[in-house]
Amino acid sequence: MRIAIASDHAALALKTELRDWLIDAGHEVADLGPDTEDSVDYPDFGYRLAGVVADGTAERGIALCGSGIGISMSVNRNPDVRCALVSEPLSAALAREHNDANCIAMGARLTGSDMAKACVAAFLQTEFAGGRHQRRVDKLSTPPVTLKSQTEDA
Fold first, then answer.
1. Is 119 an active-site residue?
2. Could you say which of 65, 83, 103, 119 is catalytic?
3. How confident is the model at residue 131, as a pLDDT?
4. Which parts of this chain are annotated as the region Disordered (predicted)?
C-alpha cells in the first residue's frame, strides 16, 4: 500500500519509527517531513499530507503532532480527505469501517509507540463497509442544504 506520513517537530520520533516499521512491513511510504526537530507549523505538513491523499499519490495518510488535534484539523480542510483522530485500535478500525477514513491522526505526546502501531495496523487492515455508511460519507464532501430561517420569510 502507498502510505504518506507527516508530522510536526513534536512527533518527529514517532513519525520516524512508524515510517521504518511500515517500510519493514512492505509498504511504500512517502515521508513528507519534517526531517529535524526544529520548530515547524503543523498546518503546513497537514496540508501537504492531505494533498497527496486527495490526488491519489498515496492511498492512506498518517498525520502526527503533539496531540493529534491540530494536524487532524488541517488535514480535514481538504474536502477529499477524511482524517480521524484516533487513540486506540477500535477507533482506527471504526474510522475505516463506518467513515471510510483515508487518514488517521495521532498525538505523539498522548499515544505510545506500541499503541500507535496497533492503531495503524487496524486502520490499514480494515475495509470500508459501504452500505448505509456510504450515503453518510457522501454527505461529508457535499455542502449542506441551507434552510431559510423564519426571519427571512417575514
1. no
2. 65
3. 85
4. 134-154
